[in-house]
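> call design_seq(struct)
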C-alpha cells in the first residue's frame, strides 16, 4: 500500500515506545475513576436500602436505590455529545484535566449527602465525568500512539475500567461507605497530578496551528532518535490539505468511509451492551450458589472482578498480534455458547426446581459458563468497541462519532440495566439468556462480513479499507 502515503511503519521506527505507554496509562487513570464509579453501586446500594442502615442519616428505599445505581448512565449519556465539541475546542488534555472538577464535586455530594436527592445529584454528576472520559481518553490514546502499538494502548481504557470496578468490589465490601467514598474521590485527584505532566495530542496541536508544540509533543512521545519531522510534516500536510480543500461537516460525515465507520461503531456498541454482560453480572451470586459454592456474594463479585482484569490485561498484550477481528469473532462465539448454556440451566431450574436430579447433574455448568463468558467478553467486546471508535474515523469527525457512539452506549446500558428484572419476570431467565445468545449470532455475522481489520494500519490505510479513495504518495520535496 505504498500509494497511500507515508505510514508510521515506513518512518524511522526506532523511537521510544515507553513514554507512549506512560501517557496512555496516565490518561486512563480517568477510566479507573470511572470504573470505581460503575462498581460503587454493587457493594453500597444493597446496604443503604436496608431498614437498619446507618451509612447515611436518611432512609433509601429499594426504588430510590435503583435510581441511585442507574443515574450515572443518564449523566454519561447527557455529556457524551457536548464533550466531543469541547475536546475539539480546548484539546484532549485540557478537557480531561477539567473533568476533575465535576468528578470531585460529585464525590463530595455523595460523601456528605443529607438526603436522597443530594445523593442522586452526586451520582448524576460523577456519571457526567465518567462518560466524558469514555470519549476523551480513547481519542487521546489513539492520537498519541504509533500504529504498531495503537491496539495495546487503546485496550488500556477498558483495562483500567475493570481495575476500577475490582477496586470498588474489594474496597467497598470491607470498608464503611464514608471511607469508600473518600477513597473513590481521591482517584480523580491522583489522575490530575499524574496527567498534568503528559503532552497534548500532536494531531490536535497541528489542527490548531501549534506546530512547535506538536513537535515537542512528538519528541516527548517518540524520543529524539525517531524521525519526528517526517511524521510532523505528514500531519501538517493533511491539515493543509483540509484548509486548501475545505469540506463541510455534512460532506465529511456523509462520505462512504465515514458512514461505514459510523455504522460499525454504533453496531459494536449495540452488541456490547446487548451481549448479556449485565445479565451475567446480575446473576453472579445465584450462579455461584447453583454450583454449590458456599461463597459470600461480595467474594463472588471480587472473583469476577479479578477474572475481568486478568482477561482484559491479556487482551492488551495480544490485540496487536492477533488483531481486532479475530478477538471480536472469538468473543461473540464463546459468549453465544455460554449464554446458551446458562439459558439451558436456568430454564431447567425453573421447570424442574433447583433441587431436581437433572439440575444437580449439571450444577457445574453455570459457573464454567460464567467464567468463560467473562473471559471472552474481556478479551473482545469489552475493550475493542471503544478502541475502534478511535481508530476508524478521521480527526474531523472523530469527536462527533466517538461522542454519539458513547451516548448510544450509555443509553443502552441504562435501558438494559433498568429493564432486565422486568424482562426476566416476563419471559423467564432461561429465555433471556437465549435472547442474548441469538444477538451474539448476529454480532458474529456482522463482524465477519462488515468489520475490517485495523491492526497495524495507518489512518489513511484504514480509510481506504472503508471505501475512501487512496491518497497519492508525496515525495520528500513536496513535504518540505
Amino acid at each position: 500500500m505504498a500509494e497511500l502515503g507515508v505510514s508510521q511503519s515506513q518512518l524511522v521506527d526506532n523511537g521510544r515506545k515507553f513514554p507512549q505507554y506512560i501517557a496512555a496509562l496516565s490518561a486512563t487513570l480517568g477510566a479507573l475513576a470511572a470504573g470505581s464509579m460503575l462498581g460503587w453501586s454493587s457493594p453500597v446500594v444493597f446496604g443503604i436500602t436496608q431498614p437498619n442502615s446507618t451509612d447515611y442519616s436518611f432512609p433509601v428505599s429499594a426504588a430510590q436505590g435503583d435510581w441511585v445505581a442507574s443515574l450515572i448512565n443518564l449523566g454519561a449519556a447527557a455529556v457524551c455529545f457536548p464533550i466531543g465539541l469541547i475536546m475539539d475546542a480546548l484539546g484532549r488534555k485540557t478537557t480531561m484535566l477539567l473533568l476533575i472538577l465535576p468528578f470531585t464535586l460529585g464525590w463530595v455530594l455523595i460523601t456528605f449527602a443529607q438526603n436522597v436527592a443530594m445523593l442522586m445529584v452526586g451520582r448524576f454528576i460523577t456519571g457526567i465525568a465518567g462518560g466524558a472520559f469514555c470519549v476523551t481518553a480513547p481519542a487521546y490514546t489513539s492520537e498519541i500512539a504509533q500504529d504498531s502499538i495503537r491496539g495495546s494502548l487503546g485496550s488500556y481504557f477498558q483495562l483500567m475500567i475493570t481495575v476500577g470496578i475490582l477496586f470498588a468490589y474489594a474496597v467497598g465490601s470491607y470498608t464503611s461507605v464514608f471511607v469508600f467514598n473518600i477513597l473513590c474521590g481521591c482517584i480523580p485527584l491522583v489522575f490530575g497530578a499524574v496527567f498534568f505532566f503528559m503532552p497534548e495530542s500532536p494531531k490536535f496541536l497541528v489542527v490548531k496551528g501549534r506546530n512547535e508544540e506538536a513537535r515537542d509533543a512528538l519528541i516527548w512521545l517518540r524520543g529524539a532518535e525517531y524521525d519526528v519531522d517526517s511524521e510532523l510534516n505528514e500531519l501538517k500536510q493533511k491539515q493543509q490539505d483540509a484548509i486548501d480543500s475545505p469540506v463541510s461537516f455534512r460532506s465529511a460525515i456523509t462520505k462512504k468511509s465515514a458512514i461505514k465507520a459510523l455504522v460499525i461503531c454504533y453496531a459494536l456498541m449495540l452488541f456490547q451492551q446487548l451481549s448479556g454482560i449485565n445479565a451475567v453480572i446480575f446473576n453472579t451470586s445465584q450462579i455461584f450458589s447453583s454450583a454449590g459454592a458456599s461463597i459470600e456474594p461480595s467474594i463472588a463479585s471480587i472473583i469476577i472482578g479479578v477474572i475481568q482484569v486478568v482477561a482484559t490485561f491479556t487482551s492488551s498484550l495480544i490485540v496487536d498480534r492477533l488483531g481486532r477481528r479475530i478477538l471480536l469473532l472469538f468473543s461473540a462465539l464463546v459468549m453465544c455458547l455460554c449464554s446458551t448454556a446458562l439459558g439451558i440451566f436456568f430454564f431447567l431450574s425453573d421447570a424442574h426446581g433447583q433441587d431436581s436430579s437433572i439440575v444437580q447433574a449439571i450444577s457445574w455448568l453455570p459457573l464454567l459458563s460464567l467464567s468463560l463468558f467473562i473471559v471472552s467478553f474481556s478479551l473482545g467486546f469489552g475493550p475493542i468497541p471503544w478502541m475502534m471508535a478511535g481508530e476508524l474515523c478521521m480527526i474531523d469527525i472523530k469527536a462527533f462519532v466517538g461522542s454519539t457512539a458513547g451516548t448510544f452506549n450509555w443509553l443502552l446500558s441504562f435501558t438494559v440495566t433498568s429493564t432486565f428484572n422486568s424482562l426476566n419476570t416476563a419471559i423467564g431467565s432461561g429465555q433471556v439468556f437465549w435472547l442474548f445468545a441469538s444477538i451474539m449470532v448476529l454480532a458474529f455475522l456482522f463482524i465477519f462480513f462488515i468489520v475490517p481489520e485495523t491492526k497495524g494500519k495507518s489512518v489513511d490505510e484504514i480509510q481506504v479499507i472503508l471505501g475512501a479513495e487512496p491518497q497519492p504518495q508525496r515525495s520528500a520535496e513536496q513535504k518540505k
